[in-house]
Q: What sequence folds into this?
């Protein structure tokens, strides 16, 4: 029973880091190195041909730590992913770096790291990004400002408010620009900053809030929505007694991308709700609702203008089954509630249901 409680508690970490635990490959003189990995055979079933088919992949990561003295610790983490669905003849394995950062921690003064990491908004958004396959996508988008994984991030974190208040954590983050005028050559974001705070009240109950504000690049601002992209997120979660409950609400401004042409929503209102239970014998059922509403979109289709439209709206029913901490079977059913109308058709936003079935080996 204790093993399954541990697995339930580790689930958010597993989703972020891609492993339930790690294998230590070096530990000497205060320096250690762990390797983690995940091999997932995953198949999507959907009437949407763009989604249907093999979705298998491999992830591996390296985490290092070195003890400089009794107060100072250096650390680093790297994680890559390889797509296993492409053919060998295609020469395209879609390899990508998910995380790559290094930093230093100084006792109760906190830690500082720089590199490719989670954006500050994910400190709260990650609470609901724990579904077997889907979820965490109402406003969290990769390489879109500081909503999820992104590059050029410098992050300061402090736990227990300098060691004086148990459970009260906060973080401040700066993101350097990623646009066509720098070495990244990618119109992702201008300079920005954000902050978050979470408070563990005890008995499994936690509260959290995060805020981020960034310059938009010159090319992004050509849509006349404004020169700034802003977001605020709040959340609450309960994680105890084999029960996991989480809810978040977020608003974004000039930030979220939608549709096949990567248009930007003037404003979004987002809700994510998750409920899970870990049974002693390894089964963990999951139920969730993910919703995002775009406001003042000004999307023209023929003679009709769509202003307020749902960008995401689905119920998710799924389950994980832990044979042990290394082998997991999972199924996830995304029941799409979006209307099949002129807006979704023209913007090429999928309104189809998707089922994911997978078996995972992780270490």
A:
């Amino acid at each position: 029973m204790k093993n399954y409680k541990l697995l339930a508690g580790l689930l958010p970490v597993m989703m972020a880091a891609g492993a339930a635990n790690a294998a230590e490959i070096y530990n000497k003189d205060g320096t250690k190195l762990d390797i983690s990995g995940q091999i997932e055979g995953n198949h999507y079933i959907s009437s949407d041909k763009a989604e249907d088919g093999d979705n298998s992949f491999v992830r591996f990561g390296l985490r290092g730590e070195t003890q400089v003295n009794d107060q100072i610790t250096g650390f680093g983490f790297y994680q890559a992913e390889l797509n296993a669905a492409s053919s060998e003849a295609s020469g395209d394995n879609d390899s990508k770096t998910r995380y790559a950062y290094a930093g230093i921690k100084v006792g109760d003064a906190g830690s500082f790291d720089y590199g490719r990491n989670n954006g500050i908004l994910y400190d709260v958004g990650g609470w609901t990004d724990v579904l077997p396959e889907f979820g965490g996508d109402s406003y969290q988008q990769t390489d879109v400002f500081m909503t999820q994984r992104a590059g050029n991030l410098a992050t300061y974190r402090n736990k227990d408010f300098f060691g004086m208040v148990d459970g009260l954590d906060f973080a401040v983050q700066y993101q350097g620009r990623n646009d066509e005028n720098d070495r990244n050559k990618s119109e992702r974001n201008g300079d920005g900053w954000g902050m978050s705070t979470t408070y563990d009240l005890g008995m499994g109950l936690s509260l959290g809030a995060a805020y981020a504000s960034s310059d938009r690049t010159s090319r992004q601002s050509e849509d006349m929505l404004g020169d700034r992209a802003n977001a605020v997120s709040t959340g609450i979660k309960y994680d105890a007694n084999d029960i996991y409950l989480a809810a978040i609400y977020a608003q974004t401004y000039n930030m979220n991308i939608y549709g096949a042409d990567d248009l930007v929503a003037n404003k979004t209102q987002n809700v994510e709700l998750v409920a899970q239970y870990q049974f002693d014998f390894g089964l963990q059922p999951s139920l969730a609702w993910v919703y995002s509403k775009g406001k003042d979109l000004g999307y023209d289709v023929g003679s009709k203008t769509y202003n307020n439209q749902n960008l995401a709206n689905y119920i998710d029913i799924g389950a994980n089954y832990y044979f042990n901490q290394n082998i997991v079977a999972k199924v996830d059913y995304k029941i799409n509630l979006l209307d099949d109308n002129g807006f979704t058709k023209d913007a090429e936003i999928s309104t189809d249901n998707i089922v994911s079935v997978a078996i995972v080996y992780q270490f």
